[in-house]
Amino acid sequence: MAANTRRSSNSPTLRQILVLLASGPLVAAVTYGTRFPGVEWDDDNWHLINQRFNPGHYQSRMSLANGYLGINVAAAGPFFEVDTPVAGDNINGWPLFDTRQTFATIAGFYDWQPTTNGSNYPWLYQYGGESVISGIPHWSGLYVEANGAMLNASVNPDDIQDFSSTLDMGAAQMSWSYSWKPGGRGEAIKVEYNMFVHKLHVNQAAVQLKLTASRDVNVTVYDVLEGNCAVRSEFVDKKYETGSPSIWSAVRPGNISNVTAYVFSTLKAGTGVDLSTREQAEGVYGGNQSSIAQSVKVNLEAGNTVQIEKYIGGASSDAFPDPQAIASAASISGASTGFAGLLHSHIQEWESILTEDSVDNFALPNGTLPSDRNIQELQITAVTNPFYILQNTVGPNAIAAAGNNTRLGVDSVPVCGFGSDCYAGLIFWDAEVWMAPGLQVSHPLSTQQIIKYREEKFSQAQENVKMAYSSSQNGTGKFSDGGAAYPWTSGRFGNCTATGPCFDYEYHLNGDIGISLYNQLAVTGDGDYFKDQLLPIHNAIAYFYGELLTYNATSDEYVLLNATDPDEYANNVDNVGFTTALIQRHLNDTNLLNSWFGVSQNASWEEKSSKLRLPVNEETGIILEYATMNGSISVKQADVILIDDLLHYNNPYSLSDLDYYAAKQSLNGPGMTYGVFSIVANEVSPSGCSSYTYDLYGSQPYAREPWFQFSEQLFDNFEANGGTHPAFPFLTGMGGANRVAIFGYLGLRLFIDRLDVDPSLPPQIPRINYRTFYWQGHGINATSNQTHTILARLPAENYTLPNANSTYTTRPIPVTLGTRPGTFSLDFSNPLIIENRRIGDIQTVQGNILQCTPNLYSAAPYLPGQFPLSAIDGAASTSWQPAYANETSYLSVDLSSSSSSGSSSTTYHPIRAIQFDWGTSPPLSYQVIFSNISISSFASPFSADMLPYIVNVTSSSNVSISQPYDAQAVEQIKTYKGNQTNVTLENVVWSGRYVTLGIWGNSADRHVNASGATVAEWSVIRADEAVAQGGDGGKRERERDVLRGVGRGG
């Protein structure tokens, strides 16, 4: 099997794709700027290059991991760092509320403690404590002392010049380069750091330091194991070795006496370093007893580079019976192999995992990215998002290299990975629903550990059913043997705790696990493994669900009581919408799976499924979150719309659900919601391109400079975001964004008996070559342009998973296209060419010339996620909202189009009407102008030098409010209806190349510092189908005369 081998460019499939979609010659590598100042993207090599030094802030730090070892390092280098408070805050979030600082740990290194600083249900502590991730000493520090100054995380920024740091995602390597002037005086020393955490040999990591001086100087280098990182751990032992240049420290997780972790560090140095000066060092670390350091003297000669390396070995007894021996051998053998040798094998393994074809590619056929910065950023996150999650997984090669150690790869993926203790390192639904799906289809062998974790905790989940007595489900004899209940949060034990109850809370977790198990079968085709290991879990969850439901004899229906749906703002309510639909699917799927695998079906599950009813408001046609929901609801995160995203549910209310709940999302919710809206919008919207708007909304406002790691929140300041200390780096949000292209634009839905896609690419995206994905264990490529999508089977010798379904080794794969009729066949010799659903070309307002136009410009700053393109995406559920009401904000749409030769042309239209849906906050005044010259060339569209070139089409300084706020109607559930202004022009006005809207004020908020008005949809409507064609290459004066003369009615 070579399922992760790089795809050959000579593959017949790719040749056919290129013939269909390609045009133009290939060009040389290009580095792209980003919206983050000082940050560039090298698309050919997958490098993020940062030239801004921003120490003391968690957003600037990087986490590196290999699925077993994980560490977070400072902006200045591979150092331990404590956050500098911002607005008085350097606190981690729930449930720890401890100090934000760099973190290092080993997978599964959980403690036991009676309580945490935060919990959902504190009274559950009487039944048992919590299991929280513990730290190990921070192991990557190589400090430098010169002229009485220390180079570590606390270095004076004024002493750093020519700073550059690079994250190489093709090699999973971090590097820093800068000049350091110790103490701000004397000659600067050139400093370079490189580090990686070995992807194949999971017990190993390496750090390299290079020093170059322009004058002879003596310095001291310190190899530090910083014990202040070992939070919630107990000191066991440490030692400065005399027989080798090694130090080590050992800790155990709090109150867990049978688990110990060892961290070894061995120095290796080149010419100029006198190892005979090596000695144990004091005073360069914090007060934690597990800290230890060693130092060496270094004689820097002018112009010569000195190289010092440290080789890490780490292991705990959770996975290794003799962790001290394993860690020691890993450290010493690493030093023997050397940095280059270790890096080579590390890169080889990493390149076999994050292959070029395993991520979505937005490049044009000539290899360059479109000029649109939004698409360039989608390309960046198409690489960064899978990278950040995959580095927290252990693959089959690593397990084999560790002697087929089955204790590796069983720890799932925490919310922020192994370089952070956010959310106490606990495992949530985040792993199954948000992180796994986008990678499960492309990297099922890596995401296997998410499945394995639930396997590991299955016996405890069966025991958890006995905890029903501690809940409202405490009726005598209600639950019997056979069920399994997983807790909301889970660490070492998987038991029901105060942060993670099993009852009276988010029961949907169990069904979320069921979906993940089902998807694993659909993707891998490994039926034997599923039947033996996963089908029993699927059945036990169904058994639990069947007994959990309460029968209402009056209505002859079953209902779920006292539950919480994904929207955690609405706790402990009855008949929750998403979970009810999920239970229905799970019961039906379990019987179906049982029939396929020759296991007896359960008739009671079929009966209960048939008698489940979702709460629906028939008047508005929406599914309610819960039976007693009213219109005042504010939704924390995606909830009801997950029904359409995850459940393959026959939902007649899909579109109204989408529009209604889009307006109800809280700005303080976590950053994975809008990826769901994008996927569902692409599936159910009859027109427009709001899926693209939501795609950007689910990514850009949450990505932080410089590394495009996601924050949990729109705003990191807890005073501005509702009191949340954001989780970071928020892998949940990155996983949510990583789902959009494959499940949204390609429309992939996972079924076991067929491959189902339904592609539709928004007009702004010219092309996507999707990540290689698997169905029943067989590799498939899909590539879309605006009009068509090609599906092609990839060569079996390189793209067949172990234990794939052999039925399709020679037979065609059955393909369906969403709700379109017919079943098609996909074989090796004949790629399938599919016509896209071009919903972006279908006008929401007939005759609107602006809808989904890809070229638009606005210099006005806007609120996070309230993009200018929202005003013309054909959906009133999205809005443009400038940041400031007290200045005029302009949005200009360029109606020209470019040909393949590079020339451009404009189609002119006779315009009779202008329509606005202002959304919730109309402006106090507006104006619409036409021109043939971009407003970006002028200070203002109404400046004196601009006036000769424009037509003022319509304006008003008295915008009426058609939907005024009604406090009495807040709790009523109503379909969306925004404030609208419709303008019919007295005379036809011909459009120019540019159509510009200016708005000022905010009628809903007249405070001095108010945010700007909202524009939900702006339509410029043709008078008829007649058009005038004009080339932009013609004389500007003649075009201007035509525009002005005809536009003013002659």
UniProtKB/TrEMBL annotation:
Record carries keyword Transmembrane: no
Pfam families (UniProt xref): Glyco_hydro_65m, Glyco_hydro_65N
Gene Ontology terms: cellular component: fungal-type cell wall
Ranges for domain Glycoside hydrolase family 65 N-terminal: 54-318
Alphabetized InterPro entries for the sequence: 6-hairpin_glycosidase_sf (IPR008928), 6hp_glycosidase-like_sf (IPR012341), Gal_mutarotase_sf_dom (IPR011013), GH65_N (IPR037018), Glyco_hydro_65_M (IPR005195), Glyco_hydro_65_N (IPR005196)
Entries under SUPFAM superfamilies matching the protein: Galactose mutarotase-like, Six-hairpin glycosidases
GO molecular function terms listed in the Swiss-Prot or TrEMBL record: alpha,alpha-trehalase activity; carbohydrate binding
Record keywords, A-Z: Glycoprotein, Hydrolase, Signal
Domain Glycoside hydrolase family 65 central catalytic: 403-627
Region listing for Disordered, in residue ranges: 1029-1050
Enzymatic reactions: alpha,alpha-trehalose + H2O = alpha-D-glucose + beta-D-glucose
Signal peptide range in chain numbering: 1-29
GO biological process: trehalose catabolic process
Similarity remark: Belongs to the glycosyl hydrolase 65 family.
Protein name, per record: alpha,alpha-trehalase
